[in-house]
Design goal:
By secondary structure, the chain is mainly alpha-helical. It contains 3 helices and 2 strands, in the order H-H-H-E-E. Helices cover about 30% and strands about 5% of the residues. The chain is elongated, with a radius of gyration of 31 Å.
Length: about 110
C-alpha cells in the first residue's frame, strides 16, 4: 500500500515498450515519451487510491442507482392457440406449415 513518502512504481520508456510488445501494440518511437508520462500518471493515481481507507464502505458497481424495472415473474395463461392461427395460411398437427427451405434430396425444394 502506497503512503505519502513511499517510493512509487517506476514507469520508464523501456517499461512502456515492453508492455506494448506484450500487448502486441505498435507505438511509434516519437509517442513513447507521451505514453510513458501518461502511464506514470495513471499508476500514481492508482497508488494514491490504494492509500485511502475504504473499510466499511460499500462498493459502487454503477454510477447511477439501479433498481429492477421488470415485472414480477408470474405464470399466466398465454394467447389462445386458435386466436394465434387466425391469420395462418396453412397448418399441420398444431404447427404453422411453411414451404421447405432446404433441398432434402427430393424434387420439391
Amino acid at each position: 500500500m502506497w503512503k505519502e513518502g513511499m517510493s512509487k512504481m517506476a514507469i520508464n520508456e523501456e517499461t512502456v515498450k515492453q508492455v506494448a510488445k506484450l500487448a502486441k501494440l505498435e507505438i511509434e518511437e516519437e509517442d513513447i515519451h507521451t505514453f510513458t508520462k501518461e502511464m506514470d500518471s495513471i499508476i500514481e493515481m492508482v497508488e494514491q487510491l490504494e492509500g485511502l481507507d475504504t473499510e466499511g464502505i460499500e462498493g459502487t458497481y454503477h454510477g447511477l442507482n439501479q433498481h429492477n424495472v421488470w415485472r414480477e415473474d408470474k405464470a399466466s395463461n398465454g394467447t389462445d392457440r386458435e386466436d394465434l392461427f387466425k391469420n395462418v395460411k396453412t397448418r399441420k398437427d398444431g404447427y404453422i406449415e411453411v414451404p421447405a427451405m432446404f433441398d432434402n434430396g427430393g424434387s420439391e425444394a
